[in-house]
Specification:
72% helix, de novo design (two linked rop proteins), 5 helices, elongated
Length: 139
């Protein structure tokens, strides 16, 4: 499993970046501060839309949880190679597949329903895609 170390490290690094993006959104929302939106769009309309929660849970909290689980999971795979051959690998991959599908759905919502783009949401979608592709390379 040492041959997969660079991919595990990449996934951990990207997941930490994703966690920080979700944390940034959460911090700004909790403090009623305006998000910086480099795309000259209105991130506020996106992160405060009716699509910003799932079952009453803010999406940024779900994102923080996802990215933390992925980072911890891949750190465990890296540290304990035997852990790499358990149901944990399937569980982390399943969560990753769900995350990329949900991320694609949310990107569609931005484009079609909201007609607004949130830079931070798009960065998170990119991070989900990188994690998904790197995870596929591990299989």
């Amino acid at each position: 499993m040492i041959l997969n170390a660079p991919l595990h490290l990449l996934i951990i690094f990207v997941a930490l970046g994703g966690f920080l993006v979700a944390f940034y959104i959460r911090h700004k929302k909790r403090n009623n501060e305006v998000l910086v939106c480099p795309l000259e769009s209105n991130c506020e309309n996106v992160v405060h839309s009716r699509y910003s929660k799932l079952a009453g849970i803010p999406l940024e909290l779900i994102g923080m949880t996802y990215y933390a689980l992925v980072a911890i999971g891949h750190a465990l795979f890296l540290i304990f190679p035997l852990f790499n051959q358990s149901e944990a690998v399937i569980a982390v991959m399943l969560v990753t597949v769900i995350a990329i599908l949900f991320s694609l759905y949310l990107t569609f919502i931005q484009a079609v329903k909201l007609k607004e783009w949130c830079t931070w949401c798009l960065v998170s979608a990119l991070f989900c895609a990188i994690i998904f592709l790197a995870s596929l390379a591990l299989v």
